[in-house]
Amino acid sequence: MASSLHPNPTTFLKPVPRPFTTTPAPAVVRVPVRCGPRDKRGPLVKGRVLSIEAIQAVQALKRAQRSDPDPSLVSKTLSRLIKSDLVAALKELLRQDQCHLALQAFSAFRSEYPPDLSVYAEVALALARNGMVEEIDTLVCELEKESGGVQWDSDKGLIRLIKAVIGADRRESTVRIYEMLKRNGWGSSSFKADEYMVRVLSKGLRRLGEAELADEVDVKFGPQLLFQS
User: Which of 211, 201, 208, 204 is nearest to 221 (CA)?
Assistant: First the structure.
């Protein structure tokens, strides 16, 4: 009876269990960070387009141009590149419209390797795009000096070069290229006159005021196309 009137005090000391609740974690706000070039030109790309060596050469040339445009430094930088890297660096400079540096790279290329009309065409297009049309004339004169080493019959850059020179309205250079074609056997069995090239050259010469030469192209090489077909 006494025990029922005086309960065990430990029953009042037992902790009362609290219901389990989960506090939601604060939301994480992700802010996208975009990295890109500081101008309108695309970034340098390594891998299949540019090797690390070509990228480093382009960057070194641009730094040298800003701080110390020493020709010997440019020559030293370019001389360390193999052919594929040199061509890649040249094309990247042309893509960035760094034509003065590109011409130096092109000079290094010409001093080491046989002439490649595809490279000539790339340079001519960039020069025309940047209004350096007189340099196109110089380019074609340099090609004339090396014309004996050009694979005229198999070089796919020929038509691109012709279109670039005509597009820049370089009359004398267009005539010069036509004369080079004739000297190197254009229209022969080993260097057949392509129909598209005949049409482009004829129209270009006529537009540039060389109607007589345009007629000559039509007369000499037009019938050959009919014979070939």
Answer: 201
